[in-house]
Design brief:
Length: 389
């Protein structure tokens, strides 16, 4: 089907990348496979091997480390197009290109860049994020996972929650605290902890959305890592907050927005096709005004979501964000995508709840988008503060 939405202003090479990814997804991710991956809560390693050969995991890595240069709009276009087939390739792409590539390109020490970036650029390595804890969600300055210097090593004790991909990632980027809790942002650090380090234990959490992977409680029971495991090297000890509010993590908002946009576009495509072929009361339901208006609203709203995401991606690439555009985009795109998904689900009637269509999975995944990666309320707080309120 041709794209029903206006394409935002973007460079020609991004358009070509979109087209290549869309063709790849159409060839390699048929509906039956998507259903099977969702049920098995997994992502397809053999399809990933073919995908990474296209070279798009290099889009967040500088050329001196084996990448093609940091190109955030292009990498987000990859996420959006992959997400039209669900989270099964978009998830691993984010773990390699963003959690790994962009993060280490922005924040890694020289040794960490040399060690990780070439493999990340080839799509051969993945990071998981260990931010949330049982008692910590949006308020990341209150994390309790404890880290103590012990000679030239660091000992870690605590629990991270919702750590997606902890069982297949090469390392968990873990936010830890080294001093009193009331110092909040002043004694936080990020550590790169191998997921198979001695003292790391995983226990799976059940969840209905984003079933490309399991998510885990990760228990760190007196885990030891060398001081070189501090993200950015030992000089970044107790400076994790600077990294947390830096560009790599601001872009996480846009990754989630791109996932949501891709899924909502898939929901719209499915609803448009269904409305044309489903006949009730002697005519395709697309002839009933209630359905036509619902779909017209959905298309208009997604066009706006696409435009704000593209504008935010350009601003971040140019170093002109400061948090306002990324928060606005996360808020608007994920909330809009969810509302569009729910409207499109109605168009399919009972079939919108059946596993014979992608709709049911897309809506399940879209429900989580305004929550993960900083909830809508947190984005509103950011926007209000940046508006000077
Ligand atoms: C499938 C899945 C995968 C995930 N993967 C990861 C992962 O890999 N790594 C990771 O670290 N985390 C992960 N998460 C956790 C996710 O990032 C958190 O759920 C998210 O940050 C929100 O935290 P919370 O759910 O604990 O909500 P809370 O922060 O407890 O918030 C609960 C409610 O209160 C509201 N609220 C909280 N504070 C404020 C405030 N100041 N003002 C207004 N409203 C407020 C929130 O908007 C929300 O509605 C995952 C979650 C899911 C569901």
């Amino acid at each position: 089907m041709t794209d029903p939405l206006p394409v935002p202003e973007e460079p020609d090479h991004v358009g070509r990348i979109r087209a290549t990814v869309a063709r790849f997804v159409a060839d390699h991710c048929p509906p039956a496979a998507r259903r099977a991956w969702d049920q098995a809560m997994t992502w397809p390693r053999e399809v990933w091997a073919a995908f990474r050969a296209l070279g798009f995991t290099a889009l967040t890595v500088p050329p001196e480390h084996g990448g093609t240069g940091v190109d955030i709009p292009a990498a987000l276009a990859v996420v959006e197009e992959l997400s039209r087939a669900g989270p099964f390739l978009a998830g691993p792409y984010i773990h390699a290109a963003f959690y790994g590539g962009l993060n280490l390109a922005e924040n890694g020490s020289a040794e960490q860049k040399a060690h990780w970036l070439p493999r990340l650029a080839r799509g051969e390595a993945f990071l998981a994020y260990g931010l949330s804890e049982p008692d910590v969600g949006g308020d990341l300055a209150s994390v309790t996972t404890r880290a103590e210097r012990d000679g030239d090593s660091i000992r870690v004790t605590g629990v991270k929650r919702w750590c997606t991909g902890a069982d297949w990632a090469d390392a968990i980027l873990t936010l830890v605290r080294s001093g009193p809790a009331n110092e909040r942002k002043r004694n936080l650090s990020f550590l790169l902890i191998p997921a198979d380090a001695r003292g790391v234990r995983l226990s799976p959490l059940a969840h209905a959305n984003l079933r490309y992977s399991g998510s885990f409680d990760v228990v760190f029971d007196d885990v030891r890592v060398p001081e070189g495991a501090v993200l950015g090297g030992p000089s970044m000890w107790n400076r994790g907050w600077e990294q947390l509010v830096g560009r790599a993590l601001a872009v996480e908002r846009l990754e989630i927005a791109a996932v949501a946009l891709g899924m909502a576009r898939a929901a719209l495509d499915e609803a448009l096709a269904y409305a044309r072929q489903r006949v009730q009361f002697g005519q395709p339901i697309a002839r009933h005004q209630a359905i036509r208006h619902r779909l017209a609203d959905a298309a208009a709203r997604l066009a706006a979501a696409r435009a704000i995401l593209a504008a935010a991606a350009r601003a971040v690439q140019a170093g002109q964000d400061g948090g306002l555009f990324t928060s606005m985009a996360k808020l608007f795109v994920t909330e809009t995508a969810l509302e569009v998904g729910l409207a499109c689900q109605r168009v399919l009637g009972a079939y919108g709840l059946s596993d014979g269509f992608d709709m049911e999975r897309n809506v399940r995944d879209l429900l989580g988008m305004p929550i993960v990666g900083g909830s809508s309320d947190m984005q509103r707080n950011n926007v209000a503060a940046l508006l000077g309120l």
